[in-house]
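User: Quick sanity check before I run a bigger batch. Here is a single chain. Can you write out its predicted 3D structure?
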Amino acid sequence: MDPIDSKRSYLFAMWEGGGNVPPMLSLARKLIERGHTVRWLGDGCQAEEVYGIGADFSSWTRAPHRADRDNASDFLRDYEAANPVEQFALLRDRLMIGPAGLHAQDLIEALREQPADALVSSEMLFGAMLAAEQTGTPLVLVGSQLSIFPVPGIPPLGSGLPPARDEAMRVLQAEIAGQGMALMNQALPALNAARAQLGLAALEHVGAQAAVARRYLLLTSRAFDFPATELPPHLRYVGPELEDPTWSAPWQSPWSEQDSRPLVLVAFSTTFQDQAAAVARTVAALNALRIRGLVTLGPALTEAPIAATEAVRAVASAPHSAVLPHSSVVVTHGGHGTVMRALVAGVPLLILPMGRDQHDNAIRVTERGAGLQLPAMATEQEIRMAIEQLLSEPRYREAARRLGDSIRAEAARSSAVAELEAAATRTAARAA
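Assistant: Done. Predicted structure follows.
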């Protein structure tokens, strides 16, 4: 790449999405290392990490945003939902579409002050789609998990279902997908109102807004996802970004190197999902086993009352890349980043999903024999028995290793940066 003529400028649009943030930071850092310029518009609590990779940072002003990661500042609060439908409605109204006009105004202002060759956004932010359309800026959507938009042949996100194996299952999944789109389209009036304020024509359905994107990059593995009957032309599986969050503290094992007890890593979400009770039941289950247990609390549970014992220790954070090579089992809520890192390390998982995409990640693990799934309200005894099963039956670790090998290979040949460069390069070529 020519060091001068090929330099491009990128504007990243991001929200404080917990485990969704590190993969985006990784992409931004790689672009900077390639000689490009990156600006980041996001929540104030991301500033230190963004400056740390060498990018410029600005905070949302009109759009909802967080100055810190304290639970009290969480405006999303989707853990308050009584069921998955209500949880999605909160996500739609408080993040994706409800404040889309405000996100768009902040981004348009940033692009007018300093145009970019490409806008790179979380696929959750419909406001970024509006801003790209209104300013004519090429848009690349990035998903740090499975596709939130329908993909033919793949069960709808949020359903936690395996691939359809007969006509009855296909009909059921089509009905669920239809219900999901209807739920999304309840926000069509709000989206069209935001479009009207920007001088854009009304849409007939919400899904049409995403058509403005040049590319939709999924930072996940095609081997991990279920097979599609047909991939949308703009969608690319580019493999996961596996770097640890920059806020992970160094970790040194408190146990002797001669301690042969298996190590169980417990990791329940970077963001608050009211997970303290599930963590406490998991810790109680670990204390009843002859194991070593490490609980990484993350920013959401730093004040959780987890009593340390000789067998089980709790820390605010630890780099999973350093812990997983020594682990025998991971117990988790099923966030995409934790699942990817565990599988790449060849470690089987016990997943207790709490919503969002977690049931979908869990079914992909269990369908491949790489772990077990329990309800979020599983008892101490159920958790203990599942951990014992994972420890005693080698088939789970073997399946995790096989799947992890495929994921690692995809990550190693990721085309994410090349796709981002191509999106910006085509624009420059047309302008010339």
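The CA atoms of residues 42 and 60 lie 6 Å apart.

User: Great, the batch can go ahead then.
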